[in-house]
Amino acid sequence: MTRDLDQIGLDAVDKFITTWNSRDPELWAASLNYPHVRPSPFGPIIVAKDAIEYASRVDFAKVIATGWDHSEWDYKHVIHTSPEKIHVAGQWSRYNVDGEVIHINPVVYIVTRIGESWGIQARFGSDHAGDNDDSSGLEVRTFKLIEDFTNHFNNNNRQACAELLNYPHYGIGVGEISEHLNPADFAMSENKITIESLQSLQTGKKSLNMGLDITIRNDAGSHPFKAVVNVTLRDDHLGIQAWSLLNPDSEEA
Asked: Which of 38, 67, 146, 231 has the fewest CB atoms inside 10 Å of its own CB, making it the most exposed?
């Protein structure tokens, strides 16, 4: 690579914020890769097939009406890298013209390379819980959820796995997104999964982003992967909403 992968990931999310602050829907849409999706615990989840469709849904007037003047990073750091996909955790705040914070949003960004173009393929939203909120109970439930899903997956229990997801459910690839609209859509592979490590990256009142080190075993052998998993509480159901895998040892194409 001509540039460091960490820097590529940070440049991609910086472009996202810079173009957002421009108030230009087309410019902002160009910071993304497509198809694009933003899973979250709230409202409908829509997959935009291209930049034209995405830009057509952007309403800066509605955001400006909240008192928004600009957005800035609170933090951003790279979690996992590969030559075609990078996971970046970030949190930005919206400010009014007086420099007061009016909204805070933690997100994990799935940055992908399509051809020679790097952009954000998906954004895993995690609502901001606030400094005084105790989210430990939701974290405990989420750890058990992921462990239960893994156990059922390894035992080929498709129905039990499907019941632990939230719908629509998304798997984020490079230049593609798999979508399951309901439990009947969910299909399993013959792989077996071992969780090597599991940590909470961002925790809100109704959603969490988790980071995992996993080993996937199949007929070709054992392979290490990194993953981020978005878990949401939608309609009073705690489930896995979306996920993204990358192979840190893959070679540049």
From this structure: 67
Q: Read off the pLDDT band of 2 (50, 70, 90).
A: very low
Q: Tell me the torsion sign for CA atoms 163, 168, 170, 176.
A: positive
pLDDT at 3: 63
Same-domain status, 118 and 18: yes
Number of domains present in the structure of the chain: 2
* Range(s) of the domain holding residue 113: 5-125
| Greatest pairwise CA separation for the chain in angstroms | 60
Pairing of strands 32-37, 117-125: parallel
Neighbours of 106 (CB within 10 A): 23
* Among the ranges given (25-29, 239-243, 247-251), the one the predictor scored with the smallest mean pLDDT: 247-251
Q: Tokens 């070679």 identify what position?
A: 251
Same domain, 91 and 111: yes
Q: Of 71, 68, 66, whose CA–CA distance to 19 is shortest?
A: 71
Closest alpha carbon to 107 in 65, 58, 71:
71
pLDDT > 90? residue 1: no
On whether both 23 and 88 belong to a single domain, the answer is yes
**Which of 227, 231, 211 is closest to 142 using CA atoms?**
231
CB contact at 8 A, 162 and 169: no
pTM of the model: 0.95
Amino acid in position 131: D
**End residue of a domain, out of 64, 99, 125:** 125
Task: List the CATH number of the domain containing 162.
Answer: 3.10.450.50
Given a cut of 80, is residue 66 above it in pLDDT?
Answer: yes
Is residue 100 included in any domain, yes or no?
Answer: yes
Rg (CA), the chain: 18
